[in-house]
Amino acid sequence: MRSSQSLGMSDTRTLASAKRMLRKDVMTCNKAVAESVKLCDVDVIAAYPITPQTSIVEYLAEFVAKKEIDAEYIKVESEHSALSALVGASPAGARTFTATSSQGLILMSEVMFTASGMRLPIVMANANRALSAPLNIWNDQQDSLAVRDSGWIQFYAENNQEALDYVIQCYKISENKKVMLPSMVNLDGFYLTHTLEPTEIPDKKDVKKFLPPYEPEYRLDPESPLTFGFFAGPDSYQEFRYEQQKAMENAERVIKEAAKDYYGFTGRKYSAIEEYKLDKKDTVLLTVGSVSGTVKEVVDKLEKKYSVGVAKLRMFRPFPFEEIRRIASRAKIIGVIEKDVIIGVNQGAVATEIKNALYGSKSIPVLSFIVGLGGRDTPPSTVEKIIKICENALEKPEKESYWMDLK
After folding, report:
1. What is the pLDDT of residues 301-330, one digit of tens each?
2. For the chain, how big is the Rg over CA atoms in Å?
3. Together in a domain, 238 and 299
4. Backbone dihedral angles phi then psi of residue 328, each to the nearest 5 degrees
5. Which one of 85, 159, 204, 327 counts the least CB within 10 Å of its CB?
6. What is the per-residue DSSP string for 295-334?
7. Which CATH number goes with the domain that contains 202?
């Protein structure tokens, strides 16, 4: 699997110092997520198993049992209860974590709106998995994109390293007093969760400097009683939603600051969109998650034949409007490769967001390519077909949406 890291070698002294502090190991993405949680000194972990995220909370149970994490480990009866437990712990001043997948995420959805509305900096890992029915345990991204309006910051990892790094950054972002919103890191089920990759683990001392102890501005305290999640009527409810929107806008700046600080001790540079061979290219293939590696390989193979590059969307909430417009200003067509579909609209959620971002600016075709639903493979041959469709559509697209590899 191709690495998506951009190491940025401009400051060799900083990088050399950072590299000495990094421990490398071969692990699954689920183990990488658990390792990152261990580095963050969490106080409360709520655990409920669901394939394919189960081993995340199993690893964390082991860390707690071995006293490698000084945390309260709560075994609950459902995913709804898992997030509900954190909605109780976070206002008390605890740094919290949970993990879920698919139907579990949807069962949590009621509480997801609660957590965001209460401005709780909870961090969650979601192992992307198709939704029932029919029952399917394999990967697509319908689950997390279905809750895109719940007020959670959303990141999507291409590989194990990105998943580990984003969990750590999420605490820094969510706990910022200008943000105070929950975050979720999405990792493709089985493609990442159960795949072994070399992964670098930052030094605990560096993480502690990057991520100081959580000190909320307001907390539940018997000596100074406060109310969280209280009743709001028509005279005030809309203002609460407006404040969530402003916090999400603030998150864009905080995310950039966190990425800059994180680069300082890891040498890994993050941005909302990773650009790959985009300079002076007619076609932009926009990707999300683990499929990005396959797409990059195909672009490498065909770069002399086609004018095509890759834009990998790492951050879906807040949506990077300016970055999308900047990329579109240099291209002639955008092909969005995504593992979800909005039934009734007949295109993916990411494609609709890109069209929204480009409204009123440069008008170029945005084609939605629906791939990989329910874990169906997206081989290089499919990516090549997508490139050919985009190239042929430069003059005038035949249609806006394509379901690839239907039987």
Report:
1. 999 999 999 999 999 999 999 999 999 999
2. 21
3. no
4. -65, -30
5. 204
6. HHHHHHHHTTTS-EEEEEE-EEES--HHHHHHHHTT-SEE
7. 3.40.50.970
